[in-house]
TrEMBL record:
InterPro entries: Ribosomal_L11_MeTrfase_PrmA, Ribosomal_PrmA_MeTrfase, SAM-dependent_MTases_sf. SUPFAM superfamilies: S-adenosyl-L-methionine-dependent methyltransferases (SSF53335). Belongs to the methyltransferase superfamily. PrmA family. It comes from the Bacteria. This is Ribosomal protein L11 methyltransferase. The gene is prmA. Keywords: Cytoplasm, Methyltransferase, Ribonucleoprotein, Ribosomal protein, S-adenosyl-L-methionine, Transferase. It catalyses: L-lysyl-[protein] + 3 S-adenosyl-L-methionine = N(6),N(6),N(6)-trimethyl-L-lysyl-[protein] + 3 S-adenosyl-L-homocysteine + 3 H(+). S-adenosyl-L-methionine binds at residues 151, 172, 194, 242. It comes from Nitrosomonas oligotropha.
Amino acid sequence: MSWVTLIIETDAAHAEVLSDALLEQGALSVDIHDAAADTQDEQMLFGEPGEPSGEIWQNAEVSALFDQDADIVAILRNVTQIIQSDQPLGYRIERIEEQDWVRLTQSQFDPIQISARLWIVPTWHQSPDPAAINLILDPGLAFGTGSHPTTQLCLGWLDQNLQPGDKIMDYGCGSGILAIAALKLGARFVTGIDIDPQAIKASQENALRNQCDPEKFHFATAHQATERSMQPEEQTDVVVANILANPLIILAPLLMQIARKHGHIVLSGILKEQAEEVKAVYQQWFDMRIAREQEGWVLLTGIKR
């Protein structure tokens, strides 16, 4: 069996009504995404932590999945009438063949060596080095398989710089990979924060899978987090945030408060051409530097004054 994906170009004013119209025409699922995703023109949407942004990309694409026998010409005609468009819709069609989706997904992730002593091992693989520090990971629906350069940059920093007994805040914890690595490397306590409840669920499960002491970690969504984490007695030795440049700029005052005096901040998710802008914002409170680059991504680190 195969399916057909109809991808229509649109804008913020028409994306939702177009999505509803495609569902009315029998779409099995509909997705709205940035037409410029993974390019320099990508538009980041974010609001207050834990709250939806309420925005849609100015240049969007609506992808609708249909059975292989769907009459795409008729669907396009009907949708054009429903949304009352005077212009022909820009679109493309992609065919999706039946596959073993579980095996296909797993095949994309092999064990990854971060350093001589640190490995990331998906749950469906055996560890290449049982004597190493092995992070046994199932990302689930959360970001953070360890394959992305931004994650590897953060892991490398933790491996080289984390001190036994350090207290860590992982803001934007995703699968929990950085928080778990910190615990395995000797952190005293780790707090993981994310706006996505699925990420919190994945982090908790992965921490237990790695036999981390439940007394040494706490994962919570951003709206569950309280100002307690920003009080001086609760400040952390290391704040690590692997997000994106624009959210990092917005979050700078918050992350500054979380870090103790002389504590470290570790920032990733930053393209090389964005580094100076992010660095300038954090330079208000930290002595910042570009610590490392990998495949066009930059790791920024700093020590709080």
